[in-house]
UniProtKB/TrEMBL annotation:
Residues at which substrate binds: T28, G29, S30, T31, D83, G84, A85, D86, K96, G97, G98, G99, K123
Organism: Asticcacaulis taihuensis
Subunit structure: Homodimer.
GO MF assignments: ribose-5-phosphate isomerase activity
Name this protein carries in UniProt: Ribose-5-phosphate isomerase A
GO CC, alphabetical: cytosol
GO BP field: D-ribose metabolic process; pentose-phosphate shunt, non-oxidative branch
Pfam families on file: Rib_5-P_isom_A
Catalytic residues (positions): E105 (proton acceptor)
Function description: Catalyzes the reversible conversion of ribose-5-phosphate to ribulose 5-phosphate.
Documented EC number(s): 5.3.1.6
Reactions performed catalytically: aldehydo-D-ribose 5-phosphate = D-ribulose 5-phosphate
Length: 229
């Protein structure tokens, strides 16, 4: 089974958790896209849902499938959010932000009563950090912010410089107008401490460590979907 087949498998499985009348947050990325497609089929078949999106990319996909995306401020607390991840570690600690949507994703996740993360088997890891950790940074005075991020990383035995994410010749700009820096941490032994210290830095808008947010993970694989709690 290819990674893409597994992504479809878990996207379809997550759609089974969605019930008529729910308010649902739609994640971003190639795995979440399968969930959006599965939901579009349910809505076509008559299911009534209130949907919000975590990115412009997902809004465009959803609308192209005939779904209506509402403003989160008009919707309030969500019943469910379903989203992909770059890594799923112990305790359902996650790295997200490979698609540069981490801020809006985290805002939507935190406004949902329940969150399901969906991923192919390769993303289920014993230790976070092989996938570079994305950090969203306010563009003003970014050099100083990055120096302070580096100091924090050293405190956690991570001796890597944050690398600005590029799109061609230009800096990648997020939906919220910020920069993304990626840190090839290698291994993150203290995700909670690192998350706390990064978040406390002025200029860091947010980071891709999603801790204590996912309620379950649906992991794809040859033997079907594995549910992790
Ligand atoms: C976007 C994300 C994505 O969920 C994450 O990058 C996984 O993407 P994909 O499903 O395409 O592998 O966090 O910011």
């Amino acid at each position: 089974m290819t990674a893409d087949e597994q992504k479809k498998q878990v996207g379809d499985a997550a759609a089974e958790y969605v019930k008529d009348g729910m308010k649902v947050g739609l994640g971003t990325g190639s795995t979440a896209a399968w969930f959006v497609k599965a939901l579009a089929e349910k809505v076509k078949a008559g299911m009534k849902l209130t949907l919000v999106s975590t990115s412009i990319q997902t809004t465009q996909l959803a609308e192209s499938l005939g779904l209506v995306i509402k403003d989160i401020n008009d919707v309030g607390v969500l019943d469910l959010c379903v989203d992909g991840a770059d890594e799923v570690g112990p305790g359902l600690a996650l790295i997200k932000g490979g698609g540069a949507a981490l801020l809006r994703e985290k805002l939507i996740w935190e406004q949902a009563k329940s969150c399901i993360v969906i991923a192919d088997a390769a993303k289920n890891v014993p230790l976070l950090g092989k996938f570079p950790l994305p950090i969203e940074v306010e563009p003003f005075a970014w050099k100083g912010t990055v120096n302070r991020i580096s100091d924090v990383l050293v405190d956690f035995d991570i001796n890597m410089m944050p690398k600005v994410r590029m799109k061609g010749e230009s800096h990648w700009i997020t939906d919220g107008g910020n920069l993304i820096f990626d840190v090839a941490c290698g291994a993150i032994h203290e995700p909670a401490g690192l998350a706390h210290e990064l978040k406390s830095l002025t200029g860091v808008v947010d980071h891709g460590l999603f801790l204590d947010l996912a309620d379950i993970a649906l992991i794809g694989g040859e033997d079907g979907v594995t549910v992790l709690h």
